[in-house]
C-alpha cells in the first residue's frame, strides 16, 4: 500500500509544530523559573542571588531587619548578588526581602521573610553603665541662736554714767560747823616735853655716879 505524499507532508508539519512548541515552552520556562530569588539567612549574614531579570528596567531590591534597613532600596539590572552582615544580637531577628520587577506588569516581584537565629557562644552585649542621678541637696535648717547668759538672770547691769549726776535742788545742804563746837585735839608736841627729857637724863647720870662710887669703895 502506497501512502500519498500529501499525507507525509501533513504528518511532518504536525511533528515540526509539536517540536517547536515544546522547545519554546522549555526555553521560556527556564528564565521564568530563574526569576525566583535565591537567598539564605544565617545567624550572622544574609546572602542574596538574583538572576535572569529583565535588563534596562528599574528592578529594585530591599532588605530590612526588624523594620530597620539593612540594605536600602538598590536598583539592579539582569543580575544581583550580595552578602550582608547582620548586627550582633542576643535575640532572634526577622529579616525581610523585597524584590520588585521593573518590567511591564511586574509579575516577577517577590517578598519573603526569614528568621536569623542567635549564634552559639555569642554573649549578649553589655549595656553601658548608667550614671547615678545626683541627689538634690537638702536645704539646711537655720541653727537657732541662743541668747548670751547674763550674770544674774532676770536683772540687767546698769551702765556707768559718763558724767556725774548733778545734785538735785531738793537735796538738803550739809550744815557748816558752828563756833560752839569743841576744838579738835592738837597733834603737835607740847612745850613741857624738853623739861621732862632733861630731868630723866639727870636721874640717869646721878644713878650712874652713885653706882661708880660704890664700886670704888669696894675695891679699896
Overview of the molecule:
The protein is α+β, with helices and mostly antiparallel strands and 220 residues long. Helix content is 26%, strand content 21%. The chain has helices at 5-34, 193-219; strands at 38-41, 45-50, 59-65, 68-76, 80-85, 93-100, 110-116. It has a four-stranded antiparallel β-sheet, with no helix packed on it. The chain has a three-stranded antiparallel β-sheet with strand order 1-2-5, with no helix packed on it. Residues 17-33 have low confidence and may be disordered.
Question: Helix and strand layout, with pairings?
Answer:
Layout: H1 5-34, E1 38-41, E2 45-50, E3 59-65, E4 68-76, E5 80-85, E6 93-100, E7 110-116, H2 193-219
Antiparallel strand pairs: 1-2, 2-5, 3-4, 3-6, 6-7
Note the overall shape.
rod-shaped
Oligomer: single chain
Secondary-structure element series: HEEEEEEEH
User: Which percent range fits the helix content?
Assistant: 25-40%
Q: Over all CA atoms, what is the radius of gyration?
A: 73 Å
Give the beta-strand count: 7
Distance between the termini: 239 Å
Q: Name the CATH class of the domain at 35-116.
A: Mainly Beta
Q: Which class do the helix and strand fractions yield?
A: alpha+beta
CATH architecture of the domain at 35-116: Sandwich
Placed side by side, the strands forming the largest sheet appear as 4-3-6-7
Strand fraction: 15-25%
CATH topology of the domain at 35-116: Immunoglobulin-like
Number of helices: 2
Amino acid at each position: 500500500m502506497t501512502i500519498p505524499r500529501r499525507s507525509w507532508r501533513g504528518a511532518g508539519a504536525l511533528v515540526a509544530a509539536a517540536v517547536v512548541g515544546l522547545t519554546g515552552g522549555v526555553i521560556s520556562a527556564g528564565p521564568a523559573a530563574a526569576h525566583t530569588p535565591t537567598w539564605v539567612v544565617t545567624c550572622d549574614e544574609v546572602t542574596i542571588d538574583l538572576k535572569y531579570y529583565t535588563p534596562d528596567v528599574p528592578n529594585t531590591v530591599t532588605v530590612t531587619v526588624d523594620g530597620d534597613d539593612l540594605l536600602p532600596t538598590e536598583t539592579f539590572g539582569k543580575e544581583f548578588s550580595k552578602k550582608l552582615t547582620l548586627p550582633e544580637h542576643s535575640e532572634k531577628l526577622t529579616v525581610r526581602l523585597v524584590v520588585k520587577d521593573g518590567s511591564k506588569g511586574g509579575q516577577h516581584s517577590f517578598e519573603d521573610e526569614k528568621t536569623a537565629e542567635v549564634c552559639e557562644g555569642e554573649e549578649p552585649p553589655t549595656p553601658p553603665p548608667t550614671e547615678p542621678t545626683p541627689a538634690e541637696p537638702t536645704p539646711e535648717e537655720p541653727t537657732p541662736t541662743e541668747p548670751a547668759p547674763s550674770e544674774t538672770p532676770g536683772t540687767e547691769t546698769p551702765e556707768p554714767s559718763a558724767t556725774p549726776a548733778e545734785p538735785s535742788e531738793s537735796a538738803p545742804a550739809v550744815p557748816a560747823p558752828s563756833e560752839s563746837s569743841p576744838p579738835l585735839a592738837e597733834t603737835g608736841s607740847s612745850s613741857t616735853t624738853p623739861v621732862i627729857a632733861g630731868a630723866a637724863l639727870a636721874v640717869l647720870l646721878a644713878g650712874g655716879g652713885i653706882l661708880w662710887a660704890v664700886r670704888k669703895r669696894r675695891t679699896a
